[in-house]
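Input for the complex:
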Amino acid sequence: EAQVTQNPRYLITVTGKKLTVTCSQNMNHEYMSWYRQDPGLGLRQIYYSMNVEVTDKGDVPEGYKVSRKEKRNFPLILESPSPNQTSLYFCASSLSIGGGDTQYFGPGTRLTVL
Amino acid sequence: GQNIDQPTEMTATEGAIVQINCTYQTSGFNGLFWYQQHAGEAPTFLSYNVLDGLEEKGRFSSFLSRSKGYSYLLLKELQMKDSASYLCAVRDNQAGTALIFGKGTTLSVSS
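Predicted:
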């Protein structure tokens, strides 16, 4: 089944404790992206990647890191999480960024930083 | 710069028709998407418009006017399960990223 998977789905952590949220897609998509979603603010892009070893900042990259060592995986790293990073996170992928290629979203990761 | 506007909330009754509007300003418009998102779940693709006109898909239709920077999503024969957020997203050639999302419109359908 074609899908984007994220792990963990739910995470409660404490300030300063490094964490990684994994994202994997099995559709051979070139493009992958991370978003956070907060009430009243909509989906905001954190980082995106056009292909392996190519990553770029989105609208809200501060406090986050990503890597794209393999085409299928795009982990999101919070080196020192803070309470303002409590949010619902979505990973997404698409074949390209052209034409009608839609983005497919993972199920989301709800992160709480105490 | 880019800007996408949608109403924050809308309410409607089961069986009715509702139109959700989206206006946008982008430098290099290259298509508009609508997504549906139920609370706490991932957005799912509804429709794509790149040329002017109406695209119909079952109970849902989407319209685009590029000259006006305007789109709408039309939902007919509303059902309770249509209660969700509807996200308008624009593809901008000059943005360097896949999609720019509006903040979404939360639709509540009552019986």
